[in-house]
From TrEMBL:
This is Phage shock protein A (PspA) family protein. Keywords: Coiled coil. It comes from Rugamonas rubra. Residues 136-163 form a coiled coil.
Length: 262
């Protein structure tokens, strides 16, 4: 069994060791690599909680042992105290030796003398267990708060990155628009394309002129042929039925009879 100074010193060392966790938690979130730093610091905090919880489990087992020792010693003392009357009667009746009574009394007095020490060790074990329980509760709360703070910080980081990406897209678009605006008057490629379009247009116009010149004699010949046909073919609407029959039969029309004085 350990003494009270050992328990108290260990408890103070644990309290001092875990006292700086808050600073490390706040620094980790603002680190250069927040994702990795946050995960690493959370792992350290979780490890501290797990390690302290294991110490708490051991402290609980130790306290239960100390408490059981006190309970058993108290019950033994109470039983021995009840037996003193019976032993006195047996000693008076010569049924038990004085040496046995002496040994019994020595053990009873030793157990009574041990009781304050056993009770103190029980109290120290309980104090140490309670201190560890307080630390475990604080670490559990700190881990929960850390998770909430880390989640909020990661959300803020994601929002900031989204805004950064948006501004980057806007800057790229502005740069593209500025480039297109400058290319309208300064782009050698656009100028060459414009000149090519004009050249092709000029070539098409020249081909049209040549085609028009070549078409002119054809049109003139067709016009002359049309004039000839109109001269050689009498107008159908101007001939009589008799003249049409004579024309179709190949005979000339007889001169019309003259009416007058004979």
């Amino acid at each position: 069994m350990s003494n009270s100074n050992g328990w108290g010193l260990t408890a103070r060392l644990i309290s001092k060791h875990f006292g700086a966790l808050g600073d490390r938690v706040s620094e980790a979130i603002a680190n250069f690599d927040p994702e990795t730093a946050t995960e690493a610091d959370r792992d350290r905090l979780a490890d501290s909680l797990r390690s302290t919880a294991q110490k708490l489990a051991a402290a609980r087992a130790s306290f239960e042992k100390e408490r059981t020792d006190v309970v058993k010693l108290r019950e033994l003392i109470a039983t021995d105290e009840k037996a003193t009357g019976t032993l006195a009667e047996r000693l008076a009746a010569g049924k038990i030796s004085e040496a046995t009574i002496t040994l019994f009394c020595d053990e009873l007095e030793a157990n009574k003398a041990r009781m304050p020490q056993e009770e103190q060790e029980e109290a120290d074990a309980k104090q140490y267990m309670d201190e560890l329980q307080t630390i475990v509760d604080a670490l559990a709360k700190q881990l929960s708060e850390f998770d909430a703070a880390a989640k909020k910080a990661m959300q803020q980081l994601a929002t900031a990155k989204a805004q950064q990406d948006l501004q980057q897209v806007r800057a790229e678009r502005q740069s593209e628009l500025a480039g297109l605006s400058g290319m309208r008057g300064n782009s050698s490629a656009l100028n060459a394309l414009t000149r090519r379009a004009q050249t092709v247009s000029n070539e098409a116009a020249g081909m049209r002129i040549v085609n028009d010149i070549g078409q002119r004699p054809i049109d003139q010949a067709a016009e002359i042929e049309a004039i000839r046909r109109s001269v050689n073919t009498p107008a159908l609407g101007a001939e009589s039925a008799l003249e049409r029959l004579q024309r179709l039969s190949g005979k000339s029309a007889a001169p019309a009879p003259q009416l007058g004085n004979s």
